[in-house]
């Protein structure tokens, strides 16, 4: 594995997406996270690369023709768009293609260097034929199917620690034996109809650091003996107690310990890892930015 300062990371905030005033999705967080990582010198400018757009054929590995071309051509109905929660625009389509392209590029970098990440992504609510929950295309599913189809890996582990269960990941990949999805999430939080993963750990409202970290340690121990070739990590920080869309009571220290447990698990198995930001909706948004920055700070400790 390469040193931290030799690793590559991909950002999407060069795609500008217009949203109505007062929209609850914090699109600005992606720029703020990149600026925070640079200001704190956790990442250097030379390590950051604008995410390229995915190809149409990449998206069609996981999504239906009808859904993809409806988005590309702007012909989806209001009813079809409503579950996504974002207003359609050409900029939204291009940014969504960039988010997938960034994760694909990060996956290639991780296989070569040992670790990489995208400063966006983790769009685990997007299903084959529809988007949901601010997720347009499913970057994890597309990347997994591309790697497996090209026979570059034999088995993929998805560790999904967003507070919301990745129902799209599970609806696309949950029946496969060459993917294993571990999800720790709020039992009574969105999505209210869960799609079973390979290992689901639903936790109650107000779950705090001790209970959460114990559950994560137990889950990781259950899969330690499996033979994986790469880890996809969805590092959502909407587990924070301050998050407006979360149900947990984790502290900043608890989230950092969570990340350290995952990175320690990765290093102990000597597996490449690719990471996506996942959710984060604290008010003020600077709390979410700080938590995402802490995740990268935790990762750096394992690559110095």
Describe the structure concisely for a colleague.
The chain is of the alpha/beta class and about 300 residues long. The chain is built from 10 helices and 8 strands.
CATH superfamily: Histone deacetylase domain
CATH topology: Arginase, Chain A
**Integer average pLDDT:** 96
Q: What is the CA–CA distance across the termini?
A: 11 Å
Domains, number:
1
Alpha-beta classification = alpha/beta
Low-confidence stretches: none
Number of strands: 8
Percent range for β-strand residues: 5-15%
Total number of helices: 10
SSE string: EHEHHHHEHEHEEHEHEH
- Rounded to an integer in angstroms, the radius of gyration calculated over CA atoms is 18 Å
Share of helix, binned: 25-40%
CATH architecture: 3-Layer(aba) Sandwich
| Largest beta-sheet characterization | 8 strands, parallel
- Please report the first level of CATH classification, the CATH class: Alpha Beta
Major beta sheet, strand line-up:
2-1-3-8-7-4-5-6
Choose one word for the global shape: globular
């Amino acid at each position: 594995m390469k040193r931290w300062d030799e690793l590559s990371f991909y950002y999407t905030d060069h795609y500008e997406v217009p949203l109505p005033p007062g929209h609850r999705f914090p699109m600005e967080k992606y720029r703020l996270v990149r600026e925070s990582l640079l200001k704190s010198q956790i990442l250097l400018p030379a390590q950051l690369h604008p995410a390229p757009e995915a190809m149409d054929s990449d998206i069609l590995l996981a999504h239906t023709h009808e859904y993809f071309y409806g988005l590309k051509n702007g012909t989806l109905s209001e009813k079809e768009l409503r579950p996504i929660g974002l207003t359609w625009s050409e900029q939204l389509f291009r940014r969504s293609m960039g988010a997938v392209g960034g994760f694909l590029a990060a996956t290639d970098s991780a296989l070569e260097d040992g670790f990489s990440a995208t400063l966006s992504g983790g769009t685990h609510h997007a299903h084959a034929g529809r988007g949901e929950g601010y997720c347009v295309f499913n970057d994890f599913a597309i990347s997994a199917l591309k790697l497996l189809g090209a026979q570059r890996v034999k088995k993929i582990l998805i560790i999904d620690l967003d507070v919301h269960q990745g129902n799209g990941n599970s609806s696309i990949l949950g029946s496969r034996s060459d993917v294993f999805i571990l999800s720790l999430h709020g039992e009574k939080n969105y999505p209210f109809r869960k799609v079973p993963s390979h290992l689901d750990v639903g936790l109650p409202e107000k779950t705090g650091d001790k209970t959460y970290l114990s559950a994560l340690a137990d889950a990781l121990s259950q899969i330690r003996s499996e033979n994986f070739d790469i880890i996809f990590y969805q590092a959502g920080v909407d587990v924070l107690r301050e998050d407006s869309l979360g149900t947990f009571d984790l502290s900043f220290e608890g989230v950092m310990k969570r990340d350290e447990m995952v990175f320690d698990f990765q290093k102990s198995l000597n597996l490449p890892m690719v990471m996506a930001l996942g959710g984060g909706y604290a008010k003020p948004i600077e709390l979410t930015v700080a938590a995402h920055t802490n995740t990268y700070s935790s990762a750096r400790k394992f690559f110095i």
